[in-house]
Amino acid sequence: MDFSNLFVVLRQGAVGGPYATLADAQAAGAVTLNLGLFINAVVSFMIVAFVVFLLVRTINRLKREEAVAPASPTEQPCPYCLMVVPIKATRCGHCTAMLDQPAEAEAITAPPQMPPAKP
């Protein structure tokens, strides 16, 4: 649809009377409010904005990366004072309470056992 000839006459020009088109009104020197041109601009903008939105959404879907697994925790809360301490700590630095070691942390920090020497 073309709304370019939709206008409202605010003040009559040198030649009075109803004007058939916007060009006739401007030729007569009438002051007009060009609603049709504004509506055409808004509709054109909305169409272009929607197309750009679809384009950006498609590009983002193509660039989507797989979810990265969260890294293993490096800190744990102290069960007594609830402050955060490193996972390998044996004592809380805030309340000096003894902390339980996770099984995997003990296995990593414990030195390997040597078999007894044969006589």
Automatic annotation (TrEMBL):
**UniProt superkingdom:** Bacteria
Which chain regions cross the lipid bilayer? 35-56
Indicate how the chain sits in the lipid bilayer. Multi-pass membrane protein
Name its cellular compartments. Answer: Membrane
InterPro entries linked: MSC/AndL (IPR037673), MscL_channel (IPR036019)
Q: Which PANTHER family does the entry link to?
A: LARGE-CONDUCTANCE MECHANOSENSITIVE CHANNEL, MECHANOSENSITIVE CHANNEL MSCL
- The molecule here is called Large-conductance mechanosensitive channel
- Species source reads Vreelandella olivaria
What lineage is on file?
A: Bacteria, Pseudomonadati, Pseudomonadota, Gammaproteobacteria, Oceanospirillales
